[in-house]
Amino acid sequence: MTLHIPRDEQDASAIIREAAAKRAKLRVSGRDTKAAMGRPVDAQSGISSRELSGVTLYEPAELVISALSGTPVSEVVRTLADKGQELPFEPMDYRPLLGTKGEPTIGAVAAMNISGPRRIMAGAARDSLIGVRFANGQGEVVKSGGRVMKNVTGLDLVKLMAGSWGTLGFLTEVTFKVLPKHERMSTLLLRGLDDKRAIEALSQALGSPYDVTGAAHLPAPDTLGARTLIRLEGFSVSVDYRLGELRRLLKRFGTGDILEGRGAEALWQSVKDATVLQDHAGRSVWRISTAPTKGPDFASHVGRAVDAQWFYDWGGGLLWITTPMAGDLGVTAIREATKAFGGHATLISAPSEIRSALDVFEPQSEAVMQLTRGIKASFDPAGILNPGRMYAGV
């Protein structure tokens, strides 16, 4: 495959204009750490943002940072940490799950709306994304949003680009709102709860006024037993108070232990990056979004049909499920569960030949697909950017 690596936004625009004139399809990428996600793109050429790197604006007092799309996430994180700040949504690192190397880019975080456990409090990546620059499928440079949060009338291109997986435009710069880093992190650990009791406990915690920033349940496939995690962050005196109140609120679920320090940080990183999944290598990995109270029923339905393993994040609203790399990979059971209990299922990890034959994303109704095709056609009339990455023929 011929790979085009633009040096700047104008270069990227010229490459896309030329491809559009020839109707030559382009696979859009950053540094290829997530190339094995989504449907395989049928393209002879690619365009990469890897040389578009660097922080272009950082105003700590205004809590805003802008960076070129190929900037490593680690560079953005370091820059913010030097001023005691962080990305609010705690982006996941897919490398351990996919077995890839290299540096994830901040552009991919925006393009794929990548978020972590703190999403339940701080919102998703799209909620902190306040500005984008990109070249559309005709090579036209588009700027949307800016350096402040504001109400938007009409089509919000910033939010539209978040989660579009490079199918609508080639991002060249992104701007995020950031937050001060928390002084302390503490986790209340409840042991031995089954899935339904655990989700009940997490729901109570999330419904309390104590500003929970992480709520996960890890069932018991190993010797550690079932663990239910409730995270609090903030000023130390505030964390102490909220921990005490949460323990009183949840006393019928057990006394609970308090986890802090590196061990607790490593545990939440394993939740964030889904590495708590046991033996995911050689198995397909699914990401399920559903109503928290429906999560246990969803998992149980799949578990009765196939040899599945799972854990819960976002208070039960996010399930990570692994299924055997055999038969239909649990597709039938998972799609049945989304119809029965509601939600969306995305196939995260599987060989390319399987991803090309299955619906990687939740199938859309014909009415929604018509809207999807219309949006794609308005941004990329020739259909050259990441064709088929999300849905066949789009």
Automatic annotation (TrEMBL):
The keyword Transferase does not apply. Coiled coil: none annotated. One of its GO terms (molecular function) is FAD binding. Keywords: FAD, Flavoprotein, Oxidoreductase. Its cofactor is FAD. Residues 1-181 form the FAD-binding PCMH-type domain. Pfam families: FAD-oxidase_C, FAD_binding_4. It comes from the Bacteria. PANTHER family: D-LACTATE DEHYDROGENASE (PTHR11748), GLYCOLATE OXIDASE SUBUNIT GLCE (PTHR11748:SF103). This is FAD-binding protein.
